[in-house]
Amino acid sequence: MKHLLGIEELSKEDILYILNLATPMKDIILREVKKVPTLRGKIIATLFYEPSTRTKNSFELAAKLMSADLVSVGVSTSSVQKGESLKDTIYTLEAMGVDAIVIRHSRNGVPNYLSSFSHASIINAGDGQHEHPSQALLDLFTIQEHKGHIEGLKVLIVGDIMHSRVAKSNIYALNKLGAKVVVSGPPTLIPNEVREYAEICYSLDEAIKDVDVVNVLRLQLERQQTGLINSLQEYHRFYGLTSERVKHAKNDLLVLHPGPMNRGVEIDEDVAYSEKSAINEQVSNGVAVRMAIYYMLMGGKEQ
Ligand code: CP
User: How is the chain split among helix, strand and coil, in percent rounded to 5?
Assistant: First the structure.
């Protein structure tokens, strides 16, 4: 495999391969000397046209831990601001000898477009409302660590399913690995087509009762302007993950959130920091999973 564009294109075996690789990668992070020579001589560029804390920094840290050289393109200070096209930016990075480009962009399908002409590996770090494959892989890795397996679990995804690339990648991945997916959120934010992959339950109070995992999506506050939700207070009342709601869930419920969180809107602080929450582990696992992605795409090449 040369590129990582989305979960939709991956097989069950591809996903399991990455999850299995992430375990030894996590062992490296836990060592006193957190560095391996696997990608010595390789160059990785990160190119983020949208803000990011977790994804950008963990892809960059993963590259450094594997001894790759890193080019972190600051889009706001690059020649993109002088009108340089995306295609010319990619050609420029390739001319510098870059082997892989990690890209986040606000438009759906940009990584797929780049992969049609780029000689470097293209890694999708989130494209518009389409996919966020590395997030889904780290979410699955975290679930597997806690539950021991994915197949047969019931996983609830709560929030703005319609606009969420995290939801789409998770739904594809969970289906491929044999989990049952339930989605909950305001009817205005759940597209009908999701029925092909998930059960819809508009009542979070009902949905929460018998699930093994709940993955709470960030409420994209910009959606407020579009009239798709009435108010943040109403959203919290019906779809906020509160400790009162968690009391009605299974005892061993696992709580996930991809971040960044709007505390007091989609999730309450006491739930986010409870013993049921693996939100900080998701961040640590993000580094291991991104190391596994690099290994899969670049580790086997001649050094
Ligand atoms: N989950 C996620 O994509 O977070 P960032 O926007 O901080 O990268």
Answer: 45, 15, 40
104, HSE (Cβ side, Cα atoms, 13 Å): 23
pLDDT digits (tens, 9 = 90+) for 273-287: 999 999 999 999 999
- For the residues 213-229, what does the mean pLDDT come to? 86
CA dist list (Å): 277 to 84, 108, 143, 222, 269: 43, 31, 11, 26, 11
Give residue 296's identity as a one-letter amino acid code.
M
Do 133-279 and 12-131+283-298 fall under one CATH topology?
A: yes
Rounded distance from Cα 53 to ligand 1 centre (Å): 6
pTM of the model: 0.96
> Does residue 75 contact residue 99 with C-beta atoms inside 8 Å?
no
Q: Is 144 in the pocket of ligand 1 (CB under 6 A)?
A: no
Cβ of 52 closer than 6 Å to ligand 1, yes or no, is yes
Q: Is the CB of 242 inside a 6 Å radius of any atom of ligand 1?
A: no
| Residue 247 CA: distances (Å) to CA of 34, 105, 242, 252 | 40, 39, 9, 11
Can you tell me the distance from the alpha carbon of 4 to that of 22, in angstroms, rounded to the nearest whole number? 16
Q: Which CATH architecture has domain 12-131+283-298?
A: 3-Layer(aba) Sandwich (3.40)
For the CA of 126, the closest atom of ligand 1 is 3
Which residue puts its alpha carbon closest to atom 5 of ligand 1?
A: 52
What is the assigned CATH class of domain 133-279? alpha beta
